[in-house]
Amino acid sequence: MDALPSPLILHEDPVSGNCYKIRLTAALLGMALERRFYDITKGETRTGQFLAEVDANGRIPVLQAGNRFLPESNAACFYLADGSELIPADRFKRASMLRWMFFEQYQHEPNIATMRYWLHVLGEANLSDEQRGLMAMKRSGGEAALALMERHLAGRDWFVGGGCSLADIALFAYTHVAHEGGFALDGHRAIRGWIDRMRALPRFEAMER
Amino acid sequence: MDALPSPLILHEDPVSGNCYKIRLTAALLGMALERRFYDITKGETRTGQFLAEVDANGRIPVLQAGNRFLPESNAACFYLADGSELIPADRFKRASMLRWMFFEQYQHEPNIATMRYWLHVLGEANLSDEQRGLMAMKRSGGEAALALMERHLAGRDWFVGGGCSLADIALFAYTHVAHEGGFALDGHRAIRGWIDRMRALPRFEAMER
User: ipTM for the complex?
Assistant: First the structure.
């Protein structure tokens, strides 16, 4: 496995669960990350300097490794964890881990993280009519994502294989704060047990909020 | 690398670019896939049998490997290509490949593939008011995704490194039919050159439509 350059710098906003995924991956692996902070509610990732020097897409998180930049939270987690026990050695299990990470970005984050951003970060009183018009769709999409997770975790401790992988880290980030987006986990017993197992991991680090 | 079980069965609808990604990956690798067909416009992936036996999420594509099932198109591509030249051996490049695959599922597919499905498969006259209300947002999101791709490909032949990787395959699927969703590629010279390079690859297979 190619060695990682030093230092590793996380360009992030601590309110973002996508940024937290990378911090949690590094923590579980015992890796140190430098941190640079941006406030997404103030447009600090859309400045000319950010677009030119960090990410032309104007988004965080971005993981900086030496003079190279890696956007997309789940890709950054994969980079840090490549060759570690957080990625299954078995070919099918490795692909199944990615399956849940793509599910997270396609069906979970756009619904649950967006609702949390609107209700918890921006505040319901500050939403646009367009955002309000999308809430019913986001709510049903988020509920469907949680239902699929609950069904999968019934009788399993982890999403793939016998221990925590990047699939668990990616899905934990916004699931454990889903209530901040108005998603109740009371009826999701398997998810709540899995959240407890995540929090009990050695070197676990909580999200800063 | 663990060997692949035989047969490999792709549960798919040929109209879907997500399904095509897996077929194209297999073709470029010279692998044979059995195929099972479903018509998504007729709800054939939401039947009780499909939900119980193939995918509880009611979606295609699903790659069946022996008696195991792998949803999520990009995860299925990774499974087939694991250990091949379609995945860079360099750690940073491998993560960069995943970066573009996550971008594809988060910013490209939900806009460009959805617009194509609405306009080309369902037909504009058959859309609901809710779908019509989302079109402006999907259009601007898709344009932004294409602009980022164009900028990245200016001066590069491939998304990552010196040859075709899964990042190119994932992004090719819906980009080369973007016009069917109303996205013109006339102003995207770098993207058009890259599409030509994709089509010129040995063992390239076209999408069936």
Answer: 0.97
